[in-house]
Each structure stands twice: as structure tokens, then as C-alpha cells.
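@channel sequence for tomorrow's demo:
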Amino acid sequence: QVQLVESGGGSVQAGGSLKLSCVASGSTWSACTWGWYRQAPGAERELVASISRDNEGATTYSDSVTGRFTISQDLLKNTLVLQMNSLRSSDTAVYYCAARRCGTPVSIWNYWGQGTQVTVSS
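C-alpha cells (generated this afternoon):
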């Protein structure tokens, strides 16, 4: 099992920045892919960014955040980070940290954090 705890959410004005962190504990060695999802009110959960340990740290981003958000991972500290710049009101959502066990199909994320609220005011 892997436990995930997010922090860093809050309120910011449009154009500002926030950094989200996700500290992982437990069998972190078993997870090969890590990501950030978000869910706005009335919307489906959206994969914002991911990083793959078994693909030499390859990253992916949704079109809506490319060029503004950066995902990174500190393996020594078991921490996943999402640096969010040039925030927009459309980025307002609950952000979730997630992890996928090695060998699990890409459509499945095995572990989830509790979420952290990000609110961007225009």
C-alpha cells in the first residue's frame, strides 16, 4: 500500500503561482507512475500531469496546463511536486495526487490522496 498526502493548496489571484506537494509513504517502491488529477465542481476528474519512473522520468501534461505547470519528483524525499504558474480561474479545482503500481494498466490508478483545494480568483 501507498499513502499519499497533499499540501500546498489555497487561494490565489489569476496570474499567480502555487506549488502543490504530495508526500508518499508505504510501499512507494511499488509505484512506477505518479500524477496529479483535478476535479472542478460539476466536471469529471482530469489528469493534469504525470511522471513515469519506469520511463526515465518521462512527463505528460494536459493541453490546458502545458507550458504553465511542471511536475517533478524528489525520490529521496518521496515527494511529488506540481508547480503551477500563470494560474487562471479555470484552474480552480480540487487537486489529487495519484500513483499507479508498476505493471498496472494505464487506465488504472491504484492510490489516491485526499485532495487539496486550489481557488483562483480573477
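heads up for whoever presents: The first strand starts at residue 2 and ends at 7.
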